[in-house]
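Repro:
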Amino acid sequence: MADEAPQKSGFNLAAFLRQLTTGQLISLGVMVLAGLVLIISVFLYTTQERYVPLFREPMEAKTFMEVKDILDNRKVPYKTERNNKILVPESLSNDLRIELEAQDISAAGPDGYDVLDKTNPLKAGETILAMQKLRAKEANLAKYLKQNPMVRNAFVQITPGKDSPFADESRRAKASVMLVLTDFEKLSNGSIEGMQRYVAGAIESAELEDVVITDQYHRVLSIQAYEDDATGTSQKNIAIRQELENKLVQKVMAVVEPIMGPNKAVANVSLDVDFDKVERVEKKFGGPDAEGEPQAVYDQSKQEAVNRGAGNGLTAGAGDNTAQGAIPETGNAMATQKTSNTRQFLVDETNQTVVQAPFEIKRISVALNLDYKENEVVKEKPNVFMRLVKQDADWIETESVPLTAGELDQISELVKASVGFVENRDKMSIHNFKFQPMIGLKARASMEMSGFTENLRGWVPIIIQFIIFTVLFMTGVRMFKRFVAPILAQAQMEEPALVSALPSSTPKTVAELESEIEQELEAGLPARQMNKGDIIRKRVAEVAQTDPVATASLLRTWLLEDD
């Protein structure tokens, strides 16, 4: 013991690795490699830069290749997607976007006016210049339509009109628009009508019905235009009536639902609307003056006198003209006087035109069906244990009872006031029926029977994962106990620890142990059953159980004494 050199304190990695077996070295290497991979992965994930789209809209093929060439020349890292989008680092996205826009490079492609800028009017003829104007207008319209976030791309084709002094030879311009919509998106009627009106207004001599809009599946989206004005007016009137009916239904439900609860009432409103525009002309004449007499404007009196008489002397030759047998005139004279008066009066005349506006409601019909009302009854007062154990409040029961006549009258009055009901004109029908459940008893029982299987299917992956995790955990614990625990225990066994672990008394020599064994033999131990070697092994085993470190030191001391 005194001749041994003092062992240096510290951890020697080379000596530690030489003491390991092949299996322990492999296990330790796998654990170290897994730890390094995990650390590197976390480091790369936390330090990697986020990539964002360079442009929100998909780029055209030509623009896509131009942008790729610019990024390659500048050695900017980027990623591409299949819908012609380029992803760049977020820190460089703003600078790249500004630089590309300064070069007139955008996702929407060149502007329509660029087509005209590149056209030389001196070299191009009238026909080519007109076609270039159409191309520029098509590009601008497509760029406008793509401003809608639901539109991924747009294509516009314009057919120019033809002017002619003859009506049968002239035709208006037309336009066809195809919209490539995003997935699961649907444009509203207002958006479609706005696009249609914008395109029609941008094209000379084009009307609303001359613009046709479709989607990428060739479904017509544009508002249908009717050649017959009467048919178009009828369709608009039907749409207006339906809108009015829907608004009245919303008013009725807004009054009834707070009373009955959700899904407890069904309302329907029908309107009889007069869409005719009536024009009436009224003609009025002025009345008499302040004295009650007509106002005279012109008064004229005319008198005429006629005198007829027969004297003794007649006109020469008159007798010869008298018919034979005629009675000659007597000598009596006759006088006639005629008087006529003409009077004109002033009469005021007033023409008044009265136009009766359309959309006159002639009748409102309201049909309202109400479900039974639900009353909640508390059977018993729950205690603390019931509140903690039970998931459903089964101590409260719900009873369905019909509405009383007074309640129906009150609801009817509220509905009439909300829709502007007129007693002599409108009609209302209100009834109280018990609504059938959406799911019947048989269907509900089938769902409950199949619910256990579905729940079990949902728990199967969790159970399998738990079993796999348990197996892997137990395997890891076993490998740890088999390979790692001995390594750690051996690494902690250092000479100062061994020296401090030795007993305070001097270790026994072989002679002392032999004397103790002889004393035990003399004490009456049967020699035939246990010899000296057995006794030594027994004593060593007993000491090893109580103090294994001291036993190892004792055995090493014995070996040194034998040497």
